[in-house]
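User: Hi! I'm working on a homework problem where we have to compare a predicted structure to a textbook description. Could you give me the structure for the chain below?
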Amino acid sequence: MKASVCVATALLIAAAISGPAQPATAFEVASVKVSPPRVGKAGYTSLDADAAMVRYTNVTLEMLIAIAYRFDSNRILSGPAWLTTESYDLAAKLPPDASKDRVPEMLQTLLAERFKLAVHRQSREQRVYFLVAAKNGTRLKRAQEDGGQSQMMRGDIRGPAMSMSALAGMLSRFAGLEVVDKTGLSGTFSIHLRWTPEDQNGFGPELFAALEQQLGLKLEAGRAPVESLIVDHAERVPAEN
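Assistant: Happy to help. Predicted structure tokens:
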């Protein structure tokens, strides 16, 4: 997917001289605040986006980094301990005609500005689970809507329009190992997976059984190169909006 240095440089120069404007890499306007105390369902993490706005509630900076760099949060290493405990509310307006596919890049810009975030990448081979179709095929239903809110908590993952890579990322938080999407399925699906956690890490045979029974998917053990994101610097209180 990466172009050669020479080709990429030539394209950038040509675009700067006579090409159309580059896609937006920053939100038109954005607010990032420390989340107030919430209880019950109001305390759930919420990720919602449409063609005009991005709204994240009760998200940690680790989760924001994961979205911005398209990384599962289990592969975000180092950094201060509060990356996984301090929660934030984010609301951001997309520029006119901007695609939602550009949200991660815009979020990278926002995190650098508000949290002074600095990161670098590192790769190594390790044990993983591969997410694949079960023997009798999947039980997945294609999404009937674009976008929508995805939620996850211990024993419950749901979303009206979720990709397999997004599901793999969420499963990684409960399966004990990194989950790599090997389904070969593109597009988005309506997902609702429920299971009974068997220990404090939310990991046990019930997750594997539920995944196959409800979605027609399974996790297979293997090894694969896994790229991690190393956090070099981040500030706890975001800069003023």
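For your comparison, note the following. Residues 97 and 168 are 30 Å apart (CA to CA). Residues 1-22 have pLDDT under 50 and may be disordered. Good luck with the assignment!
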